[in-house]
């Protein structure tokens, strides 16, 4: 959650993020440690805050230590840059591996993300293992929140890496079998579903947008069900969110979705605070070429630009702009920390490298388009009036008011692309629609890239395989 970190969080982090079972010998008999900290509601709440802190990650431009986790701040490399949406400006370093579909098991960004999200899972498990200290009136809420965040982490990991280790409780450091044995994706999805059902039943919509909520749990679970082809269950959840009594709606101005934080379209976001070394983000600054870098990353592909130019409507000008320093290169600007007076986008931070733009995980436009997908249910097209109504709302807001009479799967995928461009959905959408192989193969051939079917999963980080003494196996297609 977006708030000043308590000293307690810093203290607890020193203990709970370590992989070691003991720190000193003889054992501490006074002071705070991982075994004696959780005794009150307040202490459990700091543990929950620490889960959010793990997703938030550290600002890479403010703290460059290689052993720190950057959480969601590096997610765009693993998602947008592995699709047909974005690329680096000049094929720099490890980032270039993503845009060329040549990711190596030694890639440090992949290892960072994998490590970050397993650390999030660890933090969630630590809270869940200590719920006995919570008061009866708070216990179910704490469990629901921790399980929502654990499910969110696992959902990202299983879609990116496939079969992965399942760790659903705090384990001993020497429990190598649990730490490194890959479990089938079906087993991972069973845990995700169970966790999210607990979250749906135990959460409310009364908190801030950067905190777990019932609607957020319903929305993520609906996306899980769409991924698994369980369309009817997804539709029911989405229509629950769409009930007017829930209070969610599209913003009238597309720009306000991203620059008026906490608006009625946002369902769940990762919160950041500007000009704070601990709570700011650097990813939006890295997408530019105006923060002291010689080249930016996550630039818009010509393919994505063409889609936005053709079908973006009023979203296009608020999604990308031409790089002022190099013609023919285009920057992502959905999160623009140094503002743009021509677009009416305010400066959100006096230091763009310490940006405070929240990262939106789920918003109402996504819900409406998932509603169309749930009704389509894998069919080539639909003329359902309910699907058309949801689809039309998103199009109308974009200024594309021509009446729709039917929707094909390809039209829905294109609408998701231009509405949710650069929000880390494109790769997952392509896979879920069973079009990733054909679309990315064509994109790769047209641009001289190296895509093959095995590139739909990332490599398991080589450093993890080494730590496991080769118990952890590698994905096909990677040496």
TrEMBL record:
<dbReference type="InterPro" id="IPR011990">
    <property type="entry name" value="TPR-like_helical_dom_sf"/>
</dbReference>
<feature type="domain" description="SusD-like N-terminal">
    <location>
        <begin position="76"/>
        <end position="226"/>
    </location>
</feature>
<feature type="signal peptide">
    <location>
        <begin position="1"/>
        <end position="18"/>
    </location>
</feature>
<protein>
    <submittedName>
        <fullName>RagB/SusD family nutrient uptake outer membrane protein</fullName>
    </submittedName>
</protein>
<comment type="similarity">
    <text>Belongs to the SusD family.</text>
</comment>
<dbReference type="GO" id="GO:0009279">
    <property type="term" value="C:cell outer membrane"/>
</dbReference>
<keyword id="KW-0472">Membrane</keyword>
<feature type="domain" description="RagB/SusD">
    <location>
        <begin position="313"/>
        <end position="478"/>
    </location>
</feature>
<keyword id="KW-0732">Signal</keyword>
<dbReference type="Pfam" id="PF14322">
    <property type="entry name" value="SusD-like_3"/>
</dbReference>
<keyword id="KW-0998">Cell outer membrane</keyword>
<dbReference type="InterPro" id="IPR012944">
    <property type="entry name" value="SusD_RagB_dom"/>
</dbReference>
<dbReference type="InterPro" id="IPR033985">
    <property type="entry name" value="SusD-like_N"/>
</dbReference>
<dbReference type="Pfam" id="PF07980">
    <property type="entry name" value="SusD_RagB"/>
</dbReference>
């Amino acid at each position: 959650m977006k708030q000043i970190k308590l000293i307690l969080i810093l203290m607890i982090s020193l203990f709970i993020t370590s992989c070691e079972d003991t720190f000193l010998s003889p054992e501490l008999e006074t002071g705070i440690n991982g075994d004696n900290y959780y005794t009150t509601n307040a202490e459990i709440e700091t543990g929950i805050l620490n889960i959010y802190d793990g997703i938030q990650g550290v600002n890479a431009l403010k703290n460059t230590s290689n052993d720190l986790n950057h959480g969601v701040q590096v997610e765009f490399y693993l998602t947008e840059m592995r699709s047909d949406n974005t690329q680096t400006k000049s094929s720099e370093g490890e980032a270039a591996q993503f845009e060329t579909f040549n990711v190596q098991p030694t890639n440090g960004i992949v290892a960072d993300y994998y490590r970050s999200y397993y650390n999030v899972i660890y933090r969630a498990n630590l809270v869940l293992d200590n719920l006995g200290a919570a008061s009866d009136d708070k216990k179910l809420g704490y469990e629901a929140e921790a399980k929502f965040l654990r499910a969110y982490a696992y959902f990202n990991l299983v879609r990116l890496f496939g079969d992965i280790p399942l760790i659903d409780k705090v384990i001993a450091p020497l429990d190598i079998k649990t730490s490194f044995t890959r479990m089938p994706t079906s087993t991972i999805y069973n845990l995700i579903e169970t966790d999210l059902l607990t979250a749906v039943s135990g959460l409310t919509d009364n908190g801030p947008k950067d905190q777990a909520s019932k609607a957020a749990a319903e929305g993520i679970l609906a996306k899980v069900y769409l991924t698994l082809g369980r369309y009817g269950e997804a539709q029911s959840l989405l229509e629950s969110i769409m009930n007017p009594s829930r209070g969610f709606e599209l913003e009238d101005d597309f720009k306000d979705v991203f620059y008026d934080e906490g608006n009625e379209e946002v369902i769940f976001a990762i919160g950041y605070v500007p000009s704070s070394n601990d709570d700011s983000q650097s990813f939006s600054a890295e997408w530019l070429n105006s923060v002291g870098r010689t080249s930016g990353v996550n630039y818009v592909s010509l393919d994505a630009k063409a889609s936005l130019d053709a079908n973006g409507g009023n979203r296009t000008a608020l999604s990308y702009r031409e790089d002022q320093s190099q013609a023919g290169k285009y920057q992502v600007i959905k999160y623009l920390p140094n503002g743009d007076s021509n677009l009416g986008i305010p400066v959100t931070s006096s230091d763009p490298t310490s940006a405070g733009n929240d990262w939106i995980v789920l918003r109402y436009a996504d819900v409406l388009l998932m509603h169309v997908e749930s009704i389509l249910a894998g069919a080539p097209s639909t003329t359902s009036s309910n699907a058309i109504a949801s689809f039309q709302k998103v199009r109308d807001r974009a200024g594309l008011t021509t009446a729709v009479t039917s929707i094909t799967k390809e039209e829905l995928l294109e609408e998701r692309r231009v509405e949710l461009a650069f929000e880390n959905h494109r790769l997952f959408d392509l896979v879920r629609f069973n079009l990733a192989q054909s679309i990315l193969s064509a994109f790769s051939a047209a641009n001289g890239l190296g895509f093959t079917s095995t590139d739909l999963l990332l490599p398991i980080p080589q450093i993890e395989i080494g730590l496991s003494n080769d118990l952890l196996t590698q994905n096909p297609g990677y040496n």
